[in-house]
Amino acid sequence: MRSSPDSRAVPALQAAAAFAIAGALQISAVPVLPANANEFSVLANGPPTESHLVDDAGVVSRVNKSDIKNLLTDLEERKGFHIDIVTLRKLTSKADAFEFADQLLEKWYPTVEVGNNKGLVLLVTTQKEGAVTGGPEFTKAIGDQILEAVVSENLPVLATDEKYNEALYSTCNRLIAAIDGLPDPGGPKFQENKRESNFKTKKETEEKRGQFTTVVVGLLVIAFVVPMLQYFAYVRK
């Protein structure tokens, strides 16, 4: 008995939709973490006790380590805000710097009470991007405008020129000025003859995740709902 064209179309559509879903998931998939990934050691070791700095990428000079420690220790003594600085060579466990920074902050300071006045600055040297996150009191003291400016100016612009020490030190100065209520010292801008920054703000990152979720849901509808409707329509004929 020969099958009708409609009956053959149903499994064909299912196969095509399944292939599309697999392709979309493969494109956006994050590589599986190896056991010795840098992120694991940073997460496991906990926050720095006195230095305020975890230089896993090995890009901070001895002088700058001392300067950053003095800046952030003075801030904590005066205002009660604690800021940690973390450098990584690259990210393999998370899709973006903001996601890992949030994970790190929650791991190090797991409750609102503990993390309320804590801040975290992350710089990823290979990707030339960074993130700033923190507890409710910290983000309130800094303000959204300065938080966005730091991750769009100080961190990516100077990291693109591999001026990692300046990127971190200027970021600290800008955050401290905001907490102290002083005028914003500003940050560097990308020059027209330089390549454009590929950084994403936290809002853009969340929007991109939402768009991908919508695409996957749409593909699932195509894979299962549409063939079922076609099948029932065929049976009723």
UniProtKB/TrEMBL annotation:
InterPro entries: TPM_dom (IPR007621). The chain crosses the membrane at residues 212-234. GO terms for molecular function: acid phosphatase activity. It holds the Pfam family TPM_phosphatase. Residues 54-177 form the TPM domain. Keywords: Membrane, Transmembrane, Transmembrane helix. GO terms for biological process: photosystem II repair. The keyword Transcription does not apply. This is TPM domain-containing protein. It comes from Selaginella moellendorffii (Spikemoss).
